[in-house]
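Hey,

The postdoc asked me to send both predictions to you directly instead of through the lab channel. I've kept everything plain text so nothing gets mangled by the mail client. Protein one:
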Amino acid sequence: MDSASTLILASALIIIMLGMGLSLEALDFKRIFQHPKAIFIGLINQLILLPLVGFGIAVLFPMQPEIAVGIMILAACPGGPTSNLISFMAKADLALSVTLTAFSSLITILTIPFIINFALTYFMEAGTVIELNVVETIAQIFIIVVIPITIGMLVRRFQPSFAQRMGKPVRVASGVVLALIIVGLVIKERAHFVEYFADAGLATFLLNLISMLLGYMSARVFVLSRRQATSIAIESGIQNGTLAITIAVVLLGNTAFAIPAAVYSLIMFITGGIVVYLSHRK
């Protein structure tokens, strides 16, 4: 993508993260002391099990190296703001969902560069490896994730009525932006998209399905409530696709790395809808 498209993509992510901040408050970060077991299990699923599942799928399934790297980028990313909306619609534990999104967004700033560098070294051919500068990458992700979230939280703290009014429009805008980004990627990679989709379709579906099942079952094994287990499943399976695409395009400069995130973003809305449906049946 050209510099203008890259700037637009980074700006869109900043706006989305600002919207997430409008839904957060300091209490969300205090909940780790109030419900440590649920949050600990959720973070283990998000930060450890998800990348392991992603790596297993990338190794076991035949796919282009770019798709394998894209799978790992996606697995390294935190849960997205959409997970909070789906948790609300599924009548899950919304407070737990918001808390997990907030914590995973902060922690993955440190883990993303290492996971992606490992993936680039493992899957890409010699001579084509692009190594991320760890410190520089952490700083860049900090700018486009943490600073907008902090600003959003400050707005909510001092202008709560404004934050409440802006909540829904920002969520709608986030969905529209993600849809436009996916369309742009399809157009950009149209010559190879069918081949990439064939590579990424089943792999991303399995990543989504396995991560959600692991999240739910691990929560139930540790005697968490059904609502908490549902939130952890959603947080494990609804990823921040926009961040994954931004990393692929802005930081790595390769739109092919973003294809799994684009495909996954379509799949996770379908599986998220199924979770909402099943929750309402119960």
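Protein two:
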Amino acid sequence: MFRQLRILFLLLILLCVAIGAWLERRQSTDWDAPLWIALYPINADGSELTDAYLQKLRPDQFQRLESFFDEERREYGVALERPMRFVLAPTLAKLPPKVADNPNVLQIMGWSLRLRWWAKFEVPRAPGPTPTVRLFLLYHDPNKQPSLAHSTALQKGLLGVVNVFADKTMHGSNEVVIAHEALHTLGATDKYDPATTLPLYPLGYAEPQRQPLHPQRFAELMGGRVPLTSQLAAIPDSLQTVLIGPATAVEIGWKNSL
């Protein structure tokens, strides 16, 4: 009897957690109130250059992210102004749990649980309203690490680990990555080929009806790059050359259907 009661108790806890996560995800894309997103900077490589860069970060440096989503929501008739608000949270001294190289399904699940536990119990609260989404920005010295590992975001838990550069000339491209991962937490899917990183046609193209098709003028946010030819695509250096396509708009609740 005791064993059965214990199992029942655990099942009830899991049910409550699942319902809470479902409600949290649903509320994050109903767009009846602004979605608050906290950005936590972290010195990922321990370098002095990265540390100096983080000390100079200001909250207003991320206003372009808010403007971008405000501009894009108008294209889909979303009435809520400034639907996504970004808050610069305190710099963290501790790195989040790291996912294994070439992880299997069980390793990914374990990492997800560790990240959610770490975020809940070891991360201080950001200033202002309680954020719905939290993104941990891992800054790297480009002189020490010219290429970065893939960023990761979780819809369950509304968390993201984002690899970016500690270089003011790369702030614009950093914002593209941050925006991309922010939408992953809301259910948006990648629209590029993971083997080649080339945007998938037509969903990964900002202007799939353009004639001639190439070169494209913009990147679709979840496509990640501006297609120049069928075999060549460029990383956008700012959000000024990025759009949110209809398929992504459907996934985040900005559009009813394709």
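Summary for protein two, as requested: The longest helix spans residues 2-28.

Thanks,
C.
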